[in-house]
Fold:
Amino acid sequence: MPHPARFCSAVEWAAGLDVGGIHREKLHAVTDRECLDLLQWAAPRLRLRWAGFRRSSIRGQVRKRLGRRLQALGLPDAAAYRARLEVDADEWAVLDALCRVTISRFYRDAHVFDALRDVLLPPLLEALPPGGTFRVWSAGCASGEEPSTVAILFRLGLQPRFPHVRLELLATDADEALLARARRGCYPRGSLRELPPEWRARAFLGTHGPADSSDTHGAADSSDTHGPADSSGTHGAADSSDTHGPADSSGTHGTADPSGTHGAADASGTHDAADSSGIHGAADASGTHGAADASDSDDEPCIDSAYREGVTFLRQDLRTEMPDGPFHLVLCRNVAFTYFAPPLQLEVLARLRTRLVPGGLLAIGGHESLPEHGAEWTRAAGALPLFRKTSS
Ligand SMILES: C[S@@+](CC[C@H](N)C(=O)[O-])C[C@H]1O[C@@H](n2cnc3c(N)ncnc32)[C@H](O)[C@@H]1O
Structure:
């Protein structure tokens, strides 16, 4: 049998799991201050921006992983880890993986998806030749929540009007463990709760029947900011909340998932796709998120394979690699324009532009802004974080 480490990303390993699912010893405590100091010192060397980790709840993810890494290395504190980094060039790749914030959820920033479906995508699809292909890239796709949202939106919200258009969706992420989960396609119910209820019921196996009626998210769904179930798939009130923004701390989504599926650190109702430190609890520890194990979803609804048609997951580091394109829509949300250093943001933006068709759309995170740019981009939908590539 191959060594367990082969199956684990650095994040998972440092998060304290092995393939047998045995948690390592007690977590070594790294304080928020230590974490912040380390990020301030190390982020520029990784071409990251420490201010992207400005919220302590975001840093919490990194802090926990650091604790486990220190423990694994037998180091007493963050200062010792820094000394280790000074002399061990290979450790930087581990730190890089520890710094990836992996929180995501379906239909995140509902108004963005509503605008895409209702206003922005129909003209793009209309302009395609008969039998044409609608090409999408989700960069930094986590466990597939974002690209799957697009696939569901396309099949249920657009394809009825454009039956001859095919979807080709490429989803990339730097973390192989997340991609394995994405390919498996099973999710904690909490990460689905912003998805319009009818779409959730149609696209996911296991969201019907008794399991669903006892679902602890049922109550949240009917009382949350999106208002009552809406068979048209549109959301009610705006969801401007984002894990990176102040709206989150206001508790728009209430407190932590009452089912306990999510860890306490995730009070926004978002799904931390990679931090196995209790977020996924036993499901993760038993390895059920591994790519090959689709036998037991532990009551996690799994996406119907029909919504996987045309969807490909691929490991790529956005800092150094990009697919060729051209794409009609690129989603690059809550990754480059939050965590990358400003010069790298500019570089990435310029390269993203070359991957879009003229008039193509770029979606960024709800609390992100594009780095300084000229007339190459225009806003596509008022204040929403959607931009159109101009032909200049
Ligand atoms: C905060 S999540 C955002 C997920 C999704 N785009 C969303 O907005 O819900 C950021 C994702 O970007 C990935 N990521 C971070 N750095 C990356 C890099 N250099 N290249 C590719 N993916 C990266 C992380 O692994 C993580 O899955």
User: Anything to note?
Assistant: Residues 4-99 form one domain.
